[in-house]
Amino acid sequence: MAPYSAIFIGALLVNIVATFRSSSYWGKFKLLIGFVSRDDGTELSESDDVILESPFLKEKHAKILRKYLAVYITAIFSDWIQGPYVYALYDEYGFSQHEIALLFVAGFASSMVFGTFVGGLADSCGRKKFTIAFTVIYGCSCITKHFRDFGVLLLGRLLGGISTSLLFSVFDSWLIKSHSEAGISAFLSKSFATAQYWNAIAAISAGLIANKATEFSDLRPVGNLSVDEAIIFKGGTLMPFDIALFVLSACAILASTLWSENYGNDRSTVESDHEKRKHWYSDILNAFYTTISSKQILYTGLICSLFEGSMYIFVFMWTPAIKELGGGGEMPFGVLFATFMVSCMAGSSIFSIFIGSVKNEKIGLGVFLAATITFALMTLAQTDTSTIIAFLLFEACVGCYFPMMGTMKSLVVPENKRAAIYNLYRIPLNFIVLFSLLTDLSPKASFTLCSCMLATATFLQWSLMKHQESYFSTSDNKTADLEEGKSLLSEELTTRKGSVSKDDTPDEGQN
Which segments in the chain show pLDDT lower than 50? Predict the structure, then answer.
């Protein structure tokens, strides 16, 4: 059997080193040991580095990032804490494997159909409003889990699919627009990397809290009815869903108090669009035409679907793959999950290290190529130890992927259709997930399929790099945001310089 504890410690050490290397403490450490010298006479330049090192703009970025993380982390925590117990709850209610499969298929189908249209309205109606709507819809989904009734649980899965679409589109859209309005788009990659890092921490915390919560009591009926007669239940595996409901309430309060509203366009344009709109599906239809008419937007969506589809298949298949190679012994799944998340955290730190010196699209090419190789290793692995190492390498790729793709989509997707197009990107993803649920592929066959999908994503990313000069490296939007940031920085420095000059001017009476 694989040395699970040793593997966890190794992954943790890699994460600590990568996190330190990507932090501001690394620069201080280099100064301390004399590796670099401090130059106090540096003049203000036109480079992006000046923007990133400005205390004034750093403060603006930190303020926006704190507001975003307070809402995003509570939202993603509510999602993580439910995940491991959905299947367990349905099984404990006594539903058959076929019925459970139908419930899961309904959730992904809902995300593909209803979630696409609902999420597409956020650009014109407001991202903050739809973030609050996410908490309400997902909260209702949590409440349905208390009912041992297939119809009610099916409704809950439909609501869960809609909320998942909102979670993975509206939050990113709000963050990108907030950075753009503040003139700090140069900090966007750092924001996505930080969010991914805390996402992994939230996942580990949610797993630990959920595990403890389920130990407090057993699943039991509400009232004096017997287990066979009861429909409404409480306790046991329902506790994580109750905690999620509480966290979602906190998320709604934080979003309503911390976030300002933003739209795909400025407010006057939004009101004009409302007047021009003829049908309720106009937003998503316009987003569809925009996507298919642009090779860059279309390819980006296909890459997203191929990578994230492979990620979902991995989630479904890693447990049976380990069981096959482990000889049927007891597996420390909690330790394995924590090790995965630590590797994911290391991946986001590695992205932060490279983004300062390597172009984002080149990082993407490396991530997709590495992910392709990791799935090939999973297919060829003959022992549980080598398989787990391949799993951890893929999780590191996942940690790099999300901030990289968040940055890439911020440059490629037009702001006025951002949330709508992000939801369109999830349609082929949900097709891939449904295919994996409805077929009976073995873990090895699934990993081979994922390797082929990621090889295709690598080719598409290479094709996109051919357009980097006009779409990735120097997009008009990014240039405008950097110029705004430089303008804000120059104004701040001028103000401070004037203040210092005024203080240093001697009074006439002193002469």
Answer: 40-47, 270, 274-275, 471-482, 493, 499-511
pTM for the structure as a whole: 0.83
CA 397 – CA 232 distance, rounded (Å): 42
Distances (CA, A) of 201 to 14, 105, 174, 286, 458: 16, 28, 22, 37, 29
Matching residue, tokens 């595990």: 211
- pLDDT for res 502: 47
Distance of CA 119 to the CA centre of its chain: 16
Query: Cα–Cα distance between 55 and 339 in angstroms, integer?
Result: 36
- pLDDT tens digits along 318-333: 888 888 876 556 677 7
Q: Considering Cα of 15, then 17, then 21, then 23, what sign does the dihedral take?
A: positive
Residue pair 232/146 in contact (Cβ under 8 Å)? The answer is yes
Alpha helices in 214-278 (DSSP H): 239-258, 267-276
Give the amino acid at 211: N
Q: Is 467 exposed, middle or buried (0-12, 13-18, 19+ CB in 10 A)?
A: middle
CA 347-353-357 angle, 5° bins: 130
The 3-state secondary structure of 279-341 reads CCCHHHHHHHHHHHHCHHHHHHHHHHHHHHHHHHHHHHHHHHHHHHHHCCCCCCHHHHHHHHH
Q: What is the pLDDT of residues 273-285, one digit of tens each?
A: 544 555 656 777 8
Q: Could you give phi then psi for residue 218, rounded to 5 degrees? A: -90, 160
Residue 96 — φ and ψ, nearest 5°?
Answer: -75, 165
**Spatial separation of the C-alpha atoms in residues 357 and 81, rounded to whole Å:** 36
Helix (H) or strand (E) holding 221: strand 220-221
Residues 32, 17, 339: CA angle, nearest 5 degrees: 160
Q: Are 85 and 272 in contact (CB under 8 A)?
A: no
Looking at the chain, how many residues does it have?
511
